[in-house]
């Protein structure tokens, strides 16, 4: 190979390339004004690399007619014989040199490789497909014997209404049929374990297969369609809906379906059929892919479901954002009276496009490997009172060197006791308005005539300082937060059942009252119900952004769970939207 590459053609480029160069000159003389492009093309056509590549191409194509055969298929064995023979000779320096050469690992590996290639040993040995002539129809048939344990065949069949024949409709990647390499889409099924199935109902065939124990022998008429070898795609998708093939009336074959849950990561191995993808659940040991609805089909199904729902008395209503949008300064979802300690309710810019009834089915993801010294912000989302700030406070107190909150900006004037950049960054109202217009706040709001907001800069400066930034924003802020730059990890802090809320929140415990000097808030029963309702609204609207959900039941246990999650985020790879890593 190096000989070919270095041996560039004497006397200039190939005739074909010369013609191309000439035509470039002609174009150039016409003055098209594309001199830069022409220069690039000229450079490329004249490059030594291209000349060398063309020579290699010519050389290889000129050899194609030669039926090259290996000199030997057992060169390793021959070398061993030579070695034994040589050892019986007097040890001259040449003999010694040859013996050393024959013994060297590289030489042995070279001979082994040549033998393997000569024997084509690199191709897995598949049983040869016996072709015979079907006496009735004079057509070539193949007999395929599939060894399997308890796993299904991994193929679907369909009836061709015109011919009345059953044919293979789909071969599931990684299944027994696919592994055999001998069953292809379009093959006509004539016999199953010696039983003639021509003209029979596909369900009968399914029954025969289900009843069969051990190996299965199929008599197939190969399809005329070229059976391409498909490579598995590397696409991974996070599912944003639950899927049960047995409840899906559209799926072509329920048994071939792959059930999954919202949040599961799916390896989409084949998207040839836009409507029905083949997929495996990430981490699943079963290598056989299953059918799942493709993105477009699922979106259509969901749109239909919503339309029908709306006509059907609003069963699947539009998202109820009114409560959220009109929330008052306490950040409550329904305008609940502000708690004294709360001062700020933030709003996110232009959130309507974000909150409207988007149809989110799958999201393409890729693995993100944690970078040392740069941590993903932890974003705690939840209804007011669920415990986000309590957990944030505990995290920061547990290791203030490692965790940090952001410092908000405000247009209110600084009190004498306050230090700029400590509790707040104090800026003028005009300046604050300008920054809001420049979309530099992930959320902002007005309280008693003053603006307050969390800026993107305040988050990045915590990240750049090597800290884990902990945030408890309104869910609407996720729109701005979820970016390749910030890569937030979103945890939904979900209230437990009403009974557990009553147990843990209604009665202020002595411990709660004095714990860390904070006054524990008590809730009325109505407020607890509201909390659950608001949680379900947030879940309905934003769950596709959650990386994890933690039910805030027993505080100590929950905090341990949170710490464990935070540790994993810092040390283990996680799935993130593909645009964050590419
Ligand atoms: N698991 C829990 N068990 C008992 N009390 C809890 C628990 N989690 C939080 N609390 C208490 O509930 C009250 C509300 O919690 P917190 O202020 O953290 O809520 P929040 O989600 O931040 O909502 P808000 O923004 O309205 O403050 C606090 O007094 C807190 O100590």
From TrEMBL:
Which domain of life does this protein belong to?
Eukaryota
Instruction: Outline the extent of the L27 domain.
Output: 13-68, 72-125
Q: Which residues form the SH3 domain?
A: 232-302
**Keyword Ligase tagged:** no
Q: Where is the Guanylate kinase-like domain?
A: 375-567
What InterPro entries has UniProt attached to this entry? GK/Ca_channel_bsu, Guanylate_kin-like_dom, Guanylate_kinase_CS, L27_C, L27_dom, L27_dom_sf, MAGUK, P-loop_NTPase
One Pfam annotation reads PDZ
CDD domains from the UniProt entry: GMPK, PDZ_MPP3-MPP4-MPP7-like, SH3_MPP
SUPFAM superfamilies, sorted: L27 domain, P-loop containing nucleoside triphosphate hydrolases, PDZ domain-like, SH3-domain
| Family per record | Belongs to the MAGUK family.
Specify the protein name. MAGUK p55 subfamily member 7 isoform X3
